[in-house]
TrEMBL record:
Pfam families: Beta_helix. PANTHER family: F-BOX ONLY PROTEIN, F-BOX ONLY PROTEIN 10. The keyword RNA-binding does not apply. This is Right-handed parallel beta-helix repeat-containing protein. Residues 142-312 form the Right handed beta helix domain. The keyword Repeat applies. Keywords: Repeat. It comes from the Bacteria. It comes from Amycolatopsis pigmentata.
Length: 429
């Protein structure tokens, strides 16, 4: 049911709500702003937003609330470079759907159980250094059909969160990364069917371990396509146990992007101190530096990563393992990949899966292209129109499960070179 909440004096009132009812609160018909509507909402309600530009930061602290725009491209939460976050999800079971978030100094959508992250104090290289704060997970979330563009850190950021799904979304202009999953163990998170382009990094998973599935996404036209890594700035070291399957990771050397803090450039997939990850049936093409890199830039080894059934083409180096320090790793292996070049040269013959757990990881080097200067995140290209949430204006609230169904990695195919091309600005050459 739709709830008429406007009182005679112009302020909201609760008198019209039937006991126990789940209602739709419309913006601006029932409340003048999204934040005002969210403050009126109770668990199970739908906040439905009409087309318009909303200059606000929306914080959701009511569990099992749905925030949905009537039109994905015409409902715009614009931070005007004055707000840290477009939407902050700080309660379980919340769905954010079918809207655009842009021009925030930090994040488009932040989903977190961390009070430090909610307070908006990023660390030195992006992310959040939570100090002595204990890990407190937000459990259960959904971000779907969201466009997050031109934000100063991350487009969609799940940090210290579990049991969620990021799907059917588009991110660009993230000065750190388009989609980020960090500090969760076990994650129980699925990232699927998204387009992430024109970011410093398309997808980043830091200290994100266990039941984490990144599947059937398009990471193309960034500086770096995808990374999975361990970082002392966050808790729950080391990163372990992600499944990266069925993604198109292509042409990640786009100059018209924000510069990445660590200077990454021309890399499809980067593993930095991550372990026990599976890279299965991805199409990794046209990355000028390397298709897939394994390294350890700190003191955390990269162990037992499996690279199986992927297609590599037209990369500077298809697979390269390189370590600048004594920290390397063991048990990393390859099998059944379509590729032309590796560094060191004999990886296919010498590191076939399954590799003995104690087999040392070899290291080599190659000439890496120098990254060009970037552009401000505010100048990244405007997205093309994106698909709409079906029946956005007439569907009821979305029931977010306590734990999402996890995909069967064996059923995820190698993607075509045109995966989700209709939603992308940048096309692989």
């Amino acid at each position: 049911m739709t709830l008429g909440l406007a009182g005679c004096g112009g302020g909201p009132e609760q008198g019209h709500r039937p006991a126990g009812a789940h209602v739709t609160i419309r913006v601006p018909a029932d409340a003048p702003t999204i934040s005002a509507a969210v403050s009126l909402a109770q668990s199970g309600d739908l906040v439905l937003v009409a087309p318009g530009v909303y200059h606000e930061s929306v914080k959701i602290t009511t569990a099992h609330l749905t925030l949905r725009g009537e039109s994905r491209d015409k409902v715009v939460i614009d931070g005007q470079l004055q707000q840290a976050n477009g939407v902050v999800v700080a309660a379980p079971g919340v769905a954010v759907e079918n809207l655009t978030v842009e021009n925030n100094t930090q994040n488009g959508v932040l989903v977190t159980g961390s009070a430090t992250a909610i307070a908006g104090a990023p660390g030195k290289s992006g992310g959040y250094d939570t100090g002595d704060e204990p890990v407190d997970f937000l459990k259960s979330f959904l971000v779907s059909y969201v466009t997050a563009t031109r934000n100063g850190l991350y487009g969609i950021y799940a940090f210290s969160a579990q049991n969620g799904v990021i799907e059917h979304s588009y991110t660009s202009g993230g000065a750190d990364s388009g989609i980020y999953v960090g500090q969760c163990k076990p994650c129980h998170i699925v990232v699927r069917d998204n387009v992430s382009e024109l970011n410093a990094v398309g997808y980043e998973g830091t200290n994100a371990s266990g039941d984490l599935y990144v599947v059937a996404n398009r990471f193309s036209g960034n500086r770096v396509g995808l990374t999975t890594d361990s970082d002392h700035q966050e808790k729950l070291l080391p990163q372990r146990g992600a499944v990266i399957a069925g993604n198109l990771i292509a042409a990640n050397q786009q100059a018209s992007t924000p510069e990445q803090a660590d200077g990454g450039w021309g890399i499809g997939i980067g593993v930095d101190g991550g372990s026990s990850n599976q890279f299965v049936r991805n199409r990794v093409t046209g990355n000028s530096n390397a298709g897939l890199v394994i390294t350890a830039s700190a003191d955390i080894p990269a162990d037992d990563n499996q690279i199986i059934g992927n297609t590599f083409a037209a990369n500077g180096v298809d697979i390269g393992w390189t370590f600048r320090t004594a920290t390397r790793g063991r048990g990393n292996c390859l099998r059944d990949n379509d590729l032309a070049t590796t560094v060191p040269a004999q990886l296919v013959a010498t590191t076939s899966c399954p590799a003995p757990a104690e087999s040392p990881t070899p290291s080599g080097s190659w000439v890496m292209p120098k990254p060009p200067g970037g552009i401000p995140f505010t100048e990244v290209a405007v997205p093309v129109l994106q698909p709409q949430f079906p029946d956005a204006a007439t569907s009821g609230a979305t029931a977010v499960p306590d734990v999402p169904a996890l995909p069967d990695a064996a059923s995820i195919p190698l993607p075509s070179a045109s995966l989700l091309a209709g939603s992308a600005v940048v096309q692989p050459s």
